[in-house]
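Reopening: structure tokens for the calcium ion complex, inputs below.
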Amino acid sequence: MIILKSNNFAVKKISFLLIIITLIILSCEKKDSRPNILFIMSDDHAFQAVSAYGYNLNNTPNIDRIANEGAIFNKGFVTNSICAPSRAVMLTGKHSFINGKVDNIQDYNWDQDNFAKQLQASGYQTALVGKIHLRGLPQGFDYSAVLPGQGHYYNPDFIINGITKRIQGYVTTITTELSLDWLKNKRDDTKPFLLLYHQKAPHRNWQSEEKYLTLFDDKTFDFPSNFFDNYEGRSAAAAQEMMISASEEQLAVTHGLGGHGRWGHDFKFLIDPYGRETGFGKELKRFTPEQKKAWLEAYTPKNDAMKAAKLEGKELALWKFNRYLKDYLRTIQSVDDGVGEVLNYLDEKNLTENTIVVYTSDQGFYLGEHGWFDKRFMYEESLRTPILMRYPKEIKAGSEINQLIQNLDFAPTFLDYAGVKIPADMQGESFRKILSNEKSEWRDAIYYTYYEYPSVHMVKRHYGIRTDRYKLIHFYYDIDQWELYDLEEDPSEMNNIYNNPKYSEIQNKMHTRLDDLREKYGDSDEMDQMNLDRYIEAIKGGKVWGIKKWE
Ligand code: SGN
Ligand code: CA
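Re-run output (same inputs, fresh job):
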């Protein structure tokens, strides 16, 4: 009996130990310690308007914090400077002509692979909140709350896991709230997370939050030095329709697409200085009475004063430039507030150490350079995009990255951090080792394409390459123009030196490099023609409002 009893005791002891061991193993399995990824993207946020880049236009302390505690990229670029294509590149790690989403107009194929799908399959919990601008239910995400198309600044609709719902309030705040709600209440903390927190702001038409409607009222911003560009030697630049301060004649021939800055939509006049009613009244119909009241109280006195001053010429241009820039910067203030809230949440929950935080934009933007707003061109202000990144485990605080990084590289980089094999057909490269200082060898040139023409803003089709110092661009279709820039001598790209004998050797080298890259990535004249044919077909089908003229 006694023996049996003691045996029984031994068995119990062993079972108890086994249970403990199993629990330990299970809890180890439960904890997937791979880094979380918080990918913050805003829409049309120029690097000139992130204070960490030192342009002295505004203050973005929360966004700057990412760079102060991590890295700032001085040569971050996109492959195709327009919204939906840029997002498709970011998701797939493939150039536009490979992933198929070459312009804002044609459909994106969500069935193709993307890095969120890869992370999801490897055990990440994934979410997408805000603007994505790609039609169809997002794939690769356990949770999605996205704006349909461009979305609205005030009282926006959101498609939450496929179901559309109108939410009252300001879009930037709502996007932050939905992201925080997912982090706080929908997280499975046994898994690492991927959160795409994507703001609509500061996209046109720059509608700011009520509390910032009068920010910068006491300031006058000066023109950038090339605001009054005459586009000499650059015929594609001369043909665009994206002037902040277009003349009444230019506004009248704008192909009816609303390209140049408009009195109602952009400058917020109900009645323009010439007594004409604008469409702005209609836009305010979406607002609640309180929102509308706040807006009219802010804009009416400023607009009345402007009309009374009867401005002309340079003074009028300066006024338009200031109205544009101030509205634009106001919307960024709310973006920065949101970043602050989310970073604070990471701190509170002790998630800062193990979370990769990226802040970027879908492309750059003109803040008056060449007289413009918008993007699309391969010139620096829209080719370049802000990139700031923090990951305390591998990135030293205060790092500066000067390699030629592209949005093409995000997908493979994230997979690299997550320990997921990078699919061989992804065209970007992981820059993880650049950030940890373990690698210095890197590409010496980037490749660029742009296709959306004819369309609003009338920026002609082009492709090109940029090296550390030079840029070669070819505009084609209804034009055949080459441009070459020496960015060291001419950072504002005012002087097209193509065919300048002094640069003939450089020119030849750049042509060879361009041919190499077109071949390397799988682009060609045939591809350009195919993309053009597809575009004309899409427009003929009447898919695009506003460009019915080309039917
Ligand atoms: C809208 C804007 C354009 C802008 C495109 C693309 N006009 O058409 O100014 O270039 O979106 O922007 S607006 O009258 O609707 O404001 S993108 O960021 O989505 O590519
Ligand atoms: Ca954009």
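The CA atoms of residues 403 and 442 lie 7 Å apart. The first strand starts at residue 36 and ends at 42. Marking as resolved unless the reporter disagrees.
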